[in-house]
Design a protein that fits this description.
By secondary structure, this protein is an all-alpha fold. The protein has two domains: 36 residues; 35 residues. It contains four helices and no strands. Helix 1 crosses helix 2. The model has no long low-confidence stretch (mean pLDDT 89).
Length: 91
């Protein structure tokens, strides 16, 4: 990846927000800034289009309909509750 170093003046609030985003995402401030710029421009992050296509292919190959996905989620939650050591939460 080619890198171009630039200098920008940011107000203290923007710097704090950028640092918070970087910590939350566990990335550098530069990467947090790149992600924010892509999001503001409405651009998908690198690899996102390919990842979504792979997910679409998988769902298609599994014949995964919304109803089947909901049923799978219900079964999975029930299995997790049955094996959990914590008391179940009320529904």
């Amino acid at each position: 990846m080619m890198t171009i170093r630039s200098t920008y003046a940011l107000d203290p609030g923007s710097v704090r927000t950028l640092a918070q985003l970087a910590r939350r995402w566990r990335v550098s401030k530069s990467e947090a800034l790149r992600r924010s710029i892509r999001a503001a421009a409405g651009l998908a992050p690198p690899g996102a289009v390919e990842a979504l296509r792979a997910l679409d292919r998988l769902q298609h190959d599994l014949d995964l309909t919304p109803a089947r996905a909901r049923a799978w989620a219900r079964r999975t939650r029930a299995e997790r509750r049955a094996t959990s050591r914590r008391p179940a939460r009320p529904a």
